[in-house]
Amino acid sequence: MNVLYALYADPENAQRAIDALHAASSELHFDQRQIVIVSGEPHESYAFANSDTSTRPYGWAVFGGAVGAICGYLLTTLTQKAYPIYTGGMSITPAWTNGIIIYELTMLGAILTTLITLLRGAGLPNFKGVIKDPEIWLGKILVGVANPPESSQLELETCLLQAGASEIKQFSRASH
Amino acid sequence: MSHKWGLVVDLDRCTGCEACVVACRAENNIPTVSQDQAAMGRTMQWIRVERTWEGDFPNPKVRFQPVLCQQCDDAPCESVCPTYASYHTEEGLNGQAYNRCIGTRFCANACPYTVRSFNYYNPSWDRPLNLQLNPDVSVRSVGIMEKCTFCVQRIKSAEIQAEAEKRNLKDGDFTTACAQSCASKALIFGDLHDPSSEVARLASSNRGTKLLGELGTKPNVTYLERGT
Amino acid sequence: MQRTAEQIEQAELRPTSGMNRAAEEIEKDLLRPIFTSSTKYKVAVALSGSLVLAGVAAFAYQLYTGIGVWGLNSPVFWAFDITNFVFWIGISHAGTLISAILRLCHAQWRRPVTRCAEAITVFALIIGGIVPLCHIGRPWLGYWMIPYPSERLIWPNFRSPLMWDCFAIFTYLTGSTTFLYLPTIPDFAAVRDASSGLRKRIYSLLALGWQGTPRQWQRLETAMHIMAIVIVPVAVSVHTIVSWDFSMTLVPMWHTTIFGPYFVVGAIFSGIAALILAMALLRRFLHLEAYLKPIHFDNLGKLLLTFSLLWFYFVFCEFLTTWYGNAPPEMTVLRENISQHFAPLFWIMVFCNFLLPVPLLSRKKLRTITGTAIASCTVVVGMWLERFLIIVPALDRKFLSYSWGSYRPTWVEDTLMASGFGLMALLYLLFSKAVPMISIWEMKVGLQPHGGGIITKVSAIPQPHAIMVLEGPLPTDEPE
What we know:
Oligomer: heterotrimer
Number of strands of chain B: 10
Number of domains of chain A: 2
Largest interface: A-C, 70 and 64 residues
Structural class of chain A: alpha+beta
Strand content of chain A: 5-15%
Number of helices of chain A: 4
CATH architecture of the largest domain in chain A: 2-Layer Sandwich
Order of helices and strands of chain A: EHEHHEHE
CATH topology of the largest domain in chain A: Alpha-Beta Plaits
């Protein structure tokens, strides 16, 4: 993986750079998905940070909760019916008490599902192809293009510099 | 119809001699604790005789009341056990499965009558008392809760005998250790579902009360009130 | 230029030390404890470690000899063990309130506090989960409470409140660990990029290869939002279920419907106190003075005050209704508490939980770091006493007077209790070494002009925004 990028101290400049890259993507022969943006913190007030507004995780959490509820119901009711033992004058499958177990497993299902949707949605774990630049953690935003075509490199550099970057950097990592 | 075991305690006849306590101890391998442990409050008595005084000198009255596991129909101790060690049998007993007990002691807290005993240590009997242990009853180890079982080993033994002899159990075939040892016949044990049994007749007496009956535990031990 | 209230609040919340702290400074300050450790730290670890070892030794002795080495008897079958259990589960409610509820309310002042709080939750839950395993008569069989198909042909009894405890605590532990771990991933990535060698490899694994793309940040924020929504009902249910260990029985003064909400309020109360104490200590020993500022303690002090008043309300309701009803079994227990055997402990508890904190925390002048820390110490003691006084007097004096008893703890129980505190301290110390105690990326978001709060509709070129620092007298419009 080979990334040509610039660092921006101001998110405004970063936004401008990204817009410029979007505009130039077709004429410089690269795909919009090759644009790389990395930051050390989320910048929610800017468009580039709001590209993914999927509400699917919420739906998945509800689904996970439903699965948990069903598991809770099956666990309590089936095991109580399998080896029926009377206690304290209660019925074999009391709804109140089974309901508590079902409630806890519902919540557990929602929690685990949220964890899984995060890991999958964020592409974690991902140990290959991580761009390292210490300046990211000092507040700078990295904007660049991954594997740019040779012919367009100069134009790309101009594009990035125009938006307010001080230098262009390159990150190379042998792909497996 | 299946059996439903019950006990009647006639408070008019109880003299407070505690023969029932001794017999129960011998029959059920109940450990004897040391003086220090008893001072701490760890005596183990499946049946205890509660003695209360009423009135003042020169005419104080003493009342004796044997208290044992009431074998409640709606036992508060059963639902709280996480491992079903305390459960309800088909014959109306509150069963205690020693093997299943992990010692959470929830049942003892839930019991309003405080009739459950916990094995805080591994029991031991000085020689030669270890030879006196009843082979029909398991010896409990540390961390296990125990309580009166209505001498379930005698119940089972009688039922098996009756089945082998191809007959029904009848009243008087067997009884619990406490009832057997009571000199004044204050304790009567039997099958509440057998209309001809003495316990069924006495349990419906108009002298009959239940200990803490207002709690709704539906005990199967009936106390016959004193007339005097 | 006239400053809006929002600007002033933002300025107060921003970490300062005489100049603007940029992201760079935050990075350096908050990563420092991971790479360096002082002698005081090592001494603290040694001390808490030895407390833990003492507890392990005491427990081994108990396993070998029998649970009789405790002070339990008939009728007091639960005492220190369940007191500590309820106490630690109660402490664990700190994280939920601060992290989840404040996050949902978009309260910005929560930023430096969330990770400290969430760490307390996870560790208190771990200790609270260990205590019941140590207190049962046959601990080596504790696994029978796990629902699995066993060859004993039996499953656990789901009607038992102890089983509800198992499920609730397990769910809450899973949820809290997730809630703690997810926002730490970017910080693990920061440590990864700042370290080398074995440390780098470990943190790479922990960071799961986090990059920091907008998609990842969005997904992380969404996940945190869902977790915040889900964890609040879980936390409420956990302590309610723990309270049902008592109220599901018929014991006088246990069998009361107030226990559910009463315990939840008490839990959050003790949790906030524990959090204030932890923060005061961290601030002092990790030199986080620029991040954990007086305003944080002021706000937490206000929360502590609110919960002190709520706690008193619940206690008053419970005791008044019992006293007015005048039922003999309950009155016996009530008198035990208020005027007989347990009266000294009871009134110390009222002093610690209400009489001292309320006047101390009502005055802004006294709501300083020291003031709130003192109030928190007394609250922690008072809440432990409260749990003890719920359990033992009621068991002491059940229905039949012939079976009344008394209780005195032994050295084994004292040691185990002390080692619980030691384990908490040890886990917390080790955590502060391995993980930045203040969420770096959340602090940086707090520095942003819009405070990183509500996501606004974006304009490509946002308005310039001056960042000001509260230093010296406020500028006014009036001419000099």
